Amino acid sequence: MAAARNVAVGDGGLRLSRDEESVGSGGEGGKESPSAKRFKSDRFPLTRWEFVAFVGVFLLFASGLFCIYLTMPPADYGKLKLPRTIAELRTLKDNLAMYASDYRAQFILGYCSTYIFMQTFMIPGTIFMSLLAGALFGVIRGLVLVVFNATIGASCCFFLSKLIGRPIVSWLWPDKLRFFQAEIGKRREKLLNYMLFLRITPTLPNLFINLASPIVDIPFHIFFCATLIGLIPASYITVRAGLALGDLNEFMNEGTI
């Protein structure tokens, strides 16, 4: 009996040592434990050089935008701030209407530069810029401006993501990225139709599409054409809403409402 107990203890000690080795090696087959994976997913995904590259591109765009603003005619910049609410949009529209009529070319250049900058670096507020285009320029010219700026900004975001986007998208949306990659793989022969479908419908956010497209190897010409055509319906609705907002503001100032 004593020998049996010694064997049991010995087996237990053997099992214990093997368990300790498994824990030390990260589990069976040398795999990492879930806690280790969770710890790694909490880390900032960009390396030092990728972060430096992003900051460099941002500063380059910001410097160009600042130089454009320096060449524009004087204005009361205290009243020109990015709108965050409908009330601020109405105020901005009133302040910009006279300036846009006096310096149309310079104003359009500044408007387009600001829109593309915001779209490239995923800065919220482009919806208000689209509303402003409808209120200031009408449906046709406003639609052309919005679609042009949104397409150029999305294209810049595409190339920025091609440079440093893979770790960010994999960190923020791992499940969506796997789903998107699988769907793209099944639709290679009709990729333009699928990209148009994604742009027109809210299946995936436009921000995710801009960032993930170069990662899943979507050709740029397909991305560009799908963006240019697919953004027209939503942009038209937004521009029409901005025109209605401008008309409503005029009616309120005249006291007809």
From TrEMBL:
The keyword Phosphoprotein does not apply. Residues 123-242 form the VTT domain. It is found in: Membrane. Coiled coil: none annotated. One of its GO terms (biological process) is autophagosome assembly. Residues 29-38 have a biased composition (Basic and acidic residues). It is a multi-pass membrane protein. Signal peptide: none annotated. GO terms for cellular component: endoplasmic reticulum; membrane. Residues 1-38 are annotated as: Disordered. The chain crosses the membrane at residues 51-72, 108-133, 139-160, 191-212, 218-239. Keywords: Membrane, Transmembrane, Transmembrane helix. InterPro entries: TM41A/B, VTT_dom. PANTHER family: PROTEIN, PUTATIVE, EXPRESSED-RELATED (PTHR43220:SF3), PTHR43220. This is VTT domain-containing protein. It comes from Acer negundo.
